[in-house]
Write a structure and sequence with these properties.
The protein has helices at 34-46, 56-69, 75-88, 96-120, 133-142, 155-164, 168-171, 187-198, 212-220, 240-249, 261-269, and strands at residues 4-5, 17-20, 146-154, 175-178, 205-209, 224-228, 253-255. By secondary structure, the chain is an alpha/beta fold.
């Protein structure tokens, strides 16, 4: 089954705007970031007084849940949560920025060759996107829907990576990411500003995301939230762990990717 309907759409106004997450929803440049962050956070939890008494499996579950609950927010929020948990477990945390810097250092080691390959033209950008991404964006434009890109990744990185993937032309100036002062940006702020400046009804907003935050934010304003349970490593099929948590976040429908664009267009636009 390609399309899993969780609940029917509320209202029947046509979609006018769409907000898309970046990593795991369109881009796979950072595929495997969870395999960097979860073990790193597990290490930090294990170094606390309480953590030294807990089994490794319990610490990994704790780190994984913490990471996913904040997926879609700026990375700094995951690092803030880590510091709070370390305090609760009897440890003395570093600053959230120190945790973020170390995570990004480890992540860059994983993705550096991908970035180099895209810059040199030795890697096809399509292989580092969720299948059907370009078809999805072409469809949205064809249907008169204005797409916005909103990411918890630092904005300068999102702009650079979106350009490497050839996505900038679809979003124009509507690419938003994490700021140095994290309190000045959130996906919720982007959505609220989009609605206010364009006089939107919530039901005219369509959302795509593979994390908790964007699903909740779209649902909160009455929009239709499509959970993208992308299997990032294999680029096919459903990631069952993502699916379960996207449903828990309130996704209206679940898809694995955008590979069946005809089915997607029929479901969303009645074509």
């Amino acid at each position: 089954m390609y399309w899993e309907s969780i609940r029917e759409r509320r209202g029947n106004l046509p979609f006018r705007y769409a907000v898309l997450d970046f990593d795991g929803t369109v881009s796979l440049i950072r595929e495997g970031w969870q395999q960097i962050m979860v073990p790193y956070f597990t290490e930090e939890l294990a170094a606390t007084p309480e953590g030294r008494r807990l089994p490794q499996e319990a610490l990994e579950r704790q780190a994984r849940e913490m990471v996913f609950l904040h997926t879609g927010k700026q990375t700094i929020y995951q690092c803030i949560a880590l510091g709070e948990e370390i305090t609760r477990m009897g440890g003395e945390p570093q600053s959230p920025q120190a945790y973020k810097d170390e995570y990004l250092r480890r992540l860059l080691q994983r993705i550096e060759n991908r970035l180099k390959g895209l810059r040199k033209g030795t890697i096809d950008p399509a292989t580092l996107t969720v299948p059907g991404t370009y078809d999805l964006l072409d469809m949205l434009v064809r249907e008169g829907v204005t797409p916005f890109l909103a990411s918890g990744t630092d904005e300068e990185d999102v702009l650079r990576e979106a350009s490497l993937l050839g996505l900038t032309k679809y979003f124009g100036v509507h690419i938003y990411g994490a700021q140095t002062d994290y309190r000045t940006f959130s996906k919720k702020m982007v959505i609220e500003r989009m609605i206010r400046m364009n006089g939107l009804s919530g039901e005219e907003l369509l959302g795509f995301g593979d994390g908790y935050v964007e699903i909740e934010n779209v649902r909160e304003v009455g929009g239709y939230a499509v959970g993208v349970a992308s299997n990032e490593a294999e680029r096919k099929g459903i990631d069952a762990w993502k699916r379960e948590r996207l449903i828990r976040a309130g996704a209206d429908a679940i898809i694995p990717d955008y590979g069946q664009i005809g089915e997607l267009e029929r479901r969303l636009f009645g074509k």
